[in-house]
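Aim 2, interim progress: modelling of the pentane-1,5-diamine-bound target.
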Amino acid sequence: MKSAASLALAASFGGCGPGRPTLKIFNWSDYIDEDLIAEFEKLAGCRIVYDNYSSDSELETRLATGAGSYDVVFPSDRALTALIAKELLQPIDRSRLPNFRHLDPKFLGRPFDPENRFSTPYFLGTLAMGVRTDFVRGEAHGLDPLFDAANGGRITMLDDMENVIAAALCHRNLPLNSVDTADLATAEQLLMEQKPLVQAYTSDSYRERLISGEAWAALGWSGDLLQADTELVDMRGGARVAVVIPPQGTMLWMDSMVIPARAERVDLANAFIDFLLDPRVAAANAKKVNYATPNAAARAFLPAETLANRSIYLPDELIDRCTWLEDRGQQIEKIERVWRAVRS
Ligand code: N2P
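Predicted structure of the complex, ligand included:
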């Protein structure tokens, strides 16, 4: 039985049947409760084409070359500045997003889009490490297991230049956004020494590798690591993934929902974004992906244990020690040079 709201929504997009309109979405991997995709298809009487990417640069290239147009994409804070400057996004019509009001004002008006003309916050998370506690013994001190020869061949690092270098700087207690020549030389040396121990530089397969036990220690995004732990708990084999947020502070990030300039179904794109902003939907999504929701009203629908999870909702004193990725302008070349050395 369809609700009146869903019938109205479906009617406004041309209804069901073979001629159903198509909404094209491009999102990071493991970053949505897939039941919500089916729920929206039903609600709006549309078909969703859902593709994944694993880095901001992959997204930017796709939008810039126009290879396949998308209607909703999810760039991170650092990528937004460039996407806006290159006119690859379109301004949002706030009157189409009645649920926008549920967002916590603390996550609006960030420097990359001060008036939220283009972006609607989706999730926040951190750069973190996951370790298989059955293979990596003892309490992890900061990111130590990632650089420990005892885990040789069982370590994965993100395929992401700024975050890998930030992790190395963090391990050496240096500022995460440093472009100081000596700091970067320290990071480079550490990463070159680590390289023979690394099984893979990957941003989209570490979750699975931790679950299978192929990887024992992984640098990753907090929610994906927590998802790996949840799956292991569900499998009841006794294995766990401990999620470690370095106590000295880590990188924080926030991803947003945006509509590309070349989107073909702006009507459906708005309806989909507004659907994800619905407090009940936002809570279901947050519970599944284990990232922090910027949706204040959604918190009422989240289990107390999720809200109490300090790897998702960081305590204030830890947030104070964390940083956001800074735009390093021309100095980024220094970071690129280190990354080339590590990856060549
Ligand atoms: C989810 C990746 C989170 C996006 N797999 C990092 N910005």
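Residues 28-31, 76, 125, 221, 224, 253, 255 surround pentane-1,5-diamine (CB under 6 Å). The mean pLDDT is 94.
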